Amino acid sequence: MGGTFTLFPTQASTMAGRVDNLYFFMLAVTLFFSVVVAGLVVTLAVKYRRRKADDVGANIHGSTALEVIWTAIPLLIAMVMFVWGTSVYFALAKPPAEAMEVYIVGKRWMWKAQHLTGHREINQLHVPVGTPVKLLISSEDVIHAYYIPAFRQKIDAVPGKTTTMWFEASKAGTYQLFCAEYCGTQHSGMIGKVVAMEPREFQQWLSGGAPAGTLTSSGEQEFAMLGCVTCHRDDGSGRAPSLVGVFGKPQRMANGTTVIADESYLRESILNPQAKVVQGYQPLMPAYQGQISEDNLVTLLAYIKSLEKPAAKGAPATDESAAPAGRQ
Amino acid sequence: MHEVRTNELDSSSAPTTPAVHYLNATHGAASWFFTKDHKRIALLYLYSVSTFFLVGGIFAMLVRLELATPRGDLLSAETYNKVFTAHGVVMVFFFLIPAIPAILGNFLVPLMIGAKDLAFPRINLASWYLYMTGGLFGVAVLVMGGVDTGWTFYTPYSTAASNSHVVLTALGAFVAGFSSIFTGLNFIVTIHTMRAPGMTWDRLPLFIWSHYATSLIMMLGTPVVAVTLMMVVLERTLRLGFFNPDLGGDPVLFQHLFWFYSHPAVYIMVLPGMGVISEIVAAFSRKPVFGYKMVAMASLGIALIGFLVWGHHMFTTSQSVLAAVTFSFLSFLVAIPSAIKVFNWTATLYRGSVLLDSPMLYAIGFIGLFTIGGLTGLFLAAIGLDIHVHDTYFVVAHFHYVMVGGTLLAYLGGLHYWWPKITGKLYSEPWAKTSAVIVFVGFNLTFFPQFVLGYMGMPRRYHAYPAEELSWQVLNVLSSAGASILAIGLFLPLIYLTYAAFRGRPAGPNPWGAYGLEWETTSPPPTANFEVTPIVTKPAYYYAPEEH
């Protein structure tokens, strides 16, 4: 930042270089063909300019060989771009399993981030350098999009869904955070900063705040307060299925289908439980659509997810030892 | 004085204007507002579409003025959002989509196939009234305070959050949509049933092929956007839950339905433009278009594959990985027929008799801008790269190159090429060449910096941007300066073309020495188009029959 003049965005994530390489390749192809077409048009227009008013051109109708060639070559180049672009996309879309999770809620017109440690920030996101970070993003009102140009990453925040995005910051610094999907009056004001810090500084930042409790402990309280515990008992003796170890596992539904219990399934089952009922249980649960704020929903999701790995319960996902270990 | 024009086949006598033609056959306002003559209806469209273009252009200038500084100092955020929405809605629905088909298509489709009129003259007139009704809805919205959803009407913003006139705007676009459905229907029936004797499918001018392909999209795609806009209206007024998750709907469903039409709509805009370019390149090289069949088939190919690529507008909405990869693949495929056309137009110049008059300058400008526009489309089709540039100024630059660089330049080129036929008069060629060059320079200065701006990360639809990004302001100032130059280039034709229509020298039936049925009748043509029904015995672009 610092007001330096540049015509190329900072590369500050492990993926930025890969995206830029594809960009440079496509730029080269674009330049090449633009120059070829422009050069040919100008050369031919000058070389074959009309010399007498009643001149006519040669009676050439086409050439199958030429047309096959200039169908095949662009097709070949397009397929190279397709495969390259898709491979970059796979890397951009699939977060490493050990990624540190942060929950993001977009609302008009701010970005709210909640760390598993309970730290909350508005229009800011602090992350450690060298650790994959997975963002779980939702929206409270309309569609927004979480966009960090320096990381070459972006994902829509869609109401009614949890979307995910990941990155690994490679360079400490402060980077622009934008809302990229038009969301109304203050759309261009819905911007913030992503602060990538060396792991040690990040730990200091974490210990600097005074969170009321971790995200999962808040979720546990919410879980108890809403009375979820009366049915979802840990030992499976309740009227509803136990939620221990459910996250990420296939679940059999009453209608015979199987659904992976991912974030969007859990979200749907809280807001609209009748949509997909687990086999062997009655559709008794009340719908929490409109009853629960997006922030509280986030804590519930974090809590339910933590139930599969008791070790992570209540502990920050990025303590001093966990972050470097996750990289190996 | 132009040496070519005075030295035609009938150089012995100066061209004259016929005593009676479609413009002066009948008089009075009623003879225009109740006309069933496709040529007069084309002129009704010319006046109304040009007016909307002026309105859309004023909004564009407001956007560019606002962005010349990083702070939102000219317009309030709310006003800015309404201004860019008005720019988008007016330009897409009331300029780009109707410009070539409704004006040039209406005028030329019957002439070029040797027909007396379109198949359904009354429906043709009704299309214009529908267009005007939709336009009046739009004007009413502007008078009442505007709409702020963007031309894309994304839900749930449009159904649940916006406090502006969404319903009226959607109804306006809905009504205008029927105008394009009717036009498409009329063209298809006309091309199938009213071709002159001998005008076989393989002799059809490429302008007709491109309008045929466009009409297919108009008829198959437009009803989908009409239904979608109705769903927005119903959700907004009756709270029916189609798109809003609070009502049990899916916000991304709207995007699927919307882009199922609106991506093909890009081809509604640019395919007719490609038809215009084929005619101009052939006429100003006095040669058949290289690979006629491939160019004709490429039009149909674009129309068909164009229906299968809508998902590339949603790579960042978390659609499934398989869907994203499939849409990426299909999006790359649609580039191939476009590439074929560019190479074939270029190859047409080879051993031609090339004259760089104003229509040809516009056509060459089109080829340049469309090449850049098309190639940068590939950046968006490559998913890994689209993630970064999606919803940034890169996209704004890309679609302006394709839709404005493509459609607008083809429209202007076509207007210049057929102006002598439409009005019977010649315009000032030096002025026309000057304006073509100004448009080309102004266009590139406006939109090229936006590619850089987009890759730098500036999101679109931003009323203000961070002042610490120094390069952003430099690029925005360049772009705004370019917009002013472009505006001058676009204003000039208004003056010299209008002047020519009243004071220009008579053009004669065929001032360009071009081949095609429209050049075989008088300029302006009689109400019935041809004194006797023409009989076609030669292929299209029969310029140089002596060589083989």
From TrEMBL, chain A:
UniProt-listed Enzyme Commission number(s): 7.1.1.9
Obligatory cofactor(s): Cu cation
SUPFAM superfamilies: Cupredoxins (SSF49503), Cytochrome c (SSF46626), Cytochrome c oxidase subunit II-like, transmembrane region (SSF81464)
Membrane topology per record: Multi-pass membrane protein
Keyword DNA repair: no
Domain Cytochrome c: 214-308
Cofactor descriptive note: Binds a copper A center.
One Pfam family it belongs to: COX2_TM
Domain Cytochrome oxidase subunit II transmembrane region profile: 1-96
Claim: Membrane is one of the keywords in the record: yes
Function according to Swiss-Prot or TrEMBL: Subunits I and II form the functional core of the enzyme complex. Electrons originating in cytochrome c are transferred via heme a and Cu(A) to the binuclear center formed by heme a3 and Cu(B).
Protein name: Cytochrome c oxidase subunit 2
Organism: Luteitalea pratensis
Taxonomic classification: Bacteria, Pseudomonadati, Acidobacteriota, Vicinamibacteria, Vicinamibacterales
Gene that produces this protein: ctaC
From TrEMBL, chain B:
Main subcellular location of this protein, as a coarse class: membrane
Localization per record: Cell membrane; Membrane
GO biological process: electron transport coupled proton transport; oxidative phosphorylation; respiratory electron transport chain
Functional pathway: Energy metabolism; oxidative phosphorylation
Catalytic activities: 4 Fe(II)-[cytochrome c] + O2 + 8 H(+)(in) = 4 Fe(III)-[cytochrome c] + 2 H2O + 4 H(+)(out)
Membrane topology of the entry: Multi-pass membrane protein
Coiled-coil annotated residue ranges, if any: none
GO molecular function terms listed in the Swiss-Prot or TrEMBL record: cytochrome-c oxidase activity; heme binding; metal ion binding; oxidoreductase activity
Domain Cytochrome oxidase subunit I profile, residue spans: 26-537
NCBIfam families: CtaD_CoxA
Similarity annotation: Belongs to the heme-copper respiratory oxidase family.
Protein name, as recorded: Cytochrome c oxidase subunit 1
Organism lineage: Bacteria, Pseudomonadati, Acidobacteriota, Vicinamibacteria, Vicinamibacterales
Gene that this sequence comes from: caaA
